[in-house]
Write a structure and sequence with these properties.
This protein is an alpha/beta fold. It contains 7 helices and 15 strands. Helix 5 links the parallel strand 11 and strand 12. Helix 2 crosses helix 3. The N and C termini lie close together (10 Å).
Length: 307
């Protein structure tokens, strides 16, 4: 099969489009004929050069967000049938979906939202799961609470705005001015454009929860937003947490695949509560151009590869 492969941790310039051994489903795996693969601009820099057993990997296939059609089932796999349309988030320590086929653990997949095509569906898993887990698993968000979402116009932030709105929370988004209209359209009650005269201090003490997708000075300055007992959740570096509050909870996390949550995201999409943000679409063979463009910044939504 054809795939995009990286043979050493050299970044974008090391990506090659080549023939690789056909993917084979193992125990409890699903073999997917890939229709679309979502990529993250910095995933080539992640520490993924050893498998879970600790052995070095000779190469990696990137792109772990996938939407496609079940082509075969591994021994013991239940819950899916050949021909099912599925989407999900593959294990980062296994080969990804920048290929014609991928073998994925069945527990990391759910049935694709009926109302989305494969390109749209491939933009959901990482952003949707990250937003869900930040808000509900780590942030304990419930109806009537106030949440601040940093980076409200981004892939994760826009999902978080919509999920928080669906949950009945008051939503304050932050980001750049060009994202204001999108954040308000998706459900933010208020928006702070931090590249203008707006300041975090404008909503000081109003939040029960802050979800940060930005890091840096935005994260460092976020303690002012929280009421006593509030929660600050980030997907960035824990070293950037503010140190001036001991009456708030601070959480840094990496999202995990979860079939039940994927299924719930699919249901909310089909019912019209969530709208994913797919971006540019590239042929699989043009993966170098796709990663280069995404890394340069300015491309909205999730960049997607298609075999």
């Amino acid at each position: 099969m054809k795939a995009i492969r990286l043979h050493a941790p050299t970044g974008i310039e090391g990506l090659v489009y080549e023939d690789v051994p056909d993917a084979q489903p193992g125990l409890n795996d699903v073999l997917i004929k890939v229709a679309a693969c979502g990529i993250t601009h910095n995933e080539l820099d992640w520490p993924v050069w050893k498998c879970r057993a600790g052995h070095p990997r000779a190469g990696i296939i990137p792109g772990h967000e996938v939407s496609g059609v079940v082509a075969a089932l591994g021994y013991g796999t239940a819950g899916f049938a050949v021909g099912d349309e599925v989407f999900g988030l593959a294990d980062q320590l296994r080969d990804g979906a920048a290929a014609e086929y991928i073998a994925v653990e069945a527990r990391n997949l759910a049935r694709k939202p009926r109302t989305l095509d494969h390109v749209q569906a491939a933009a959901v898993p990482r952003a949707g799961l990250t937003a869900w887990q930040a808000l509900f698993d780590h942030g304990a968000l419930t109806k009537g609470k106030t949440v601040v979402v940093h980076g409200a116009g981004g892939a994760v932030g826009s999902m978080a705005v919509q999920l928080a709105r669906w949950a009945g929370a008051r939503v304050i988004g932050t980001g750049r001015e060009h994202s204001r209209s999108l954040a308000i359209e998706l459900g933010a009650d208020r928006y702070l454009a931090l590249d203008t005269a707006d300041r975090l201090e404008d909503v000081a003490g109003e939040a029960d929860l802050v979800v940060d997708t930005v890091g840096g000075e935005v994260l460092t300055g976020s303690s002012v937003l929280l009421r006593p007992g509030g929660i600050l959740v980030t997907i960035k570096a824990a070293a950037e947490f503010p140190t001036d509050r001991d009456d708030i909870t601070k959480v840094v996390f990496v999202q995990v695949a979860d079939r039940a949550q994927l299924s719930e995201l699919a249901r909310l999409i089909d019912e019209g509560h969530l709208r994913p943000q797919p971006g540019s679409v590239y042929p699989l063979a043009d993966a170098v151009a796709a990663f280069t463009a995404k890394a340069a910044g300015g491309l909205p939504g999730r960049t997607v590869l298609r075999p």
